[in-house]
Design a protein that fits this description.
The protein is of the alpha+beta class. The chain has one domain. Helix content is 25%, strand content 52%. It is built from 1 helix and 6 strands; from the N terminus they run E-E-E-E-E-E-H. The chain has a 6-stranded antiparallel β-sheet with strand order 1-2-3-4-5-6. The longest helix is centred in the C-terminal third of the chain and has 25 residues. The relative contact order is 0.21.
């Protein structure tokens, strides 16, 4: 099972993505949006395929895990690509939300 990882710097954040493929299909993945706050690395948004279904963890700096948003209709491969694009497009919004909660 090949593992693929990449990182990309966005404006004020690091996008980190990894996936495991089986016969060319994404079998497991994790996409995180990371920022440094007061010298510590914080995961402000995360999408992954843990628990057997693609989902996004809604996070806050004070409250931690606020909610899991499940994506039953998407394949892991589809949601892996969606998560990367969403974090690239909305990184500043995720960071603001995380800091506020």
């Amino acid at each position: 099972m090949p593992d693929k990882e990449f990182t990309q710097w966005l404006d004020g954040a690091l996008l980190a993505a990894s996936c495991r493929t089986v016969q060319g299909e994404v079998a497991a993945f994790c996409v995180m949006l990371l920022v440094e706050i007061e010298g510590r690395t914080h995961c402000v948004a995360r999408c992954d395929s843990a628990h057997g279904t693609s989902h996004q963890d809604i996070l806050g700096i004070k409250k931690g895990l606020l909610e899991k948003e499940w994506f039953f209709e998407s394949s892991d491969g589809e949601y892996f690509q969606h998560a990367i694009g969403d974090f690239k497009l909305h990184a500043a919004d995720y960071i603001r939300f995380y800091r506020a909660n």
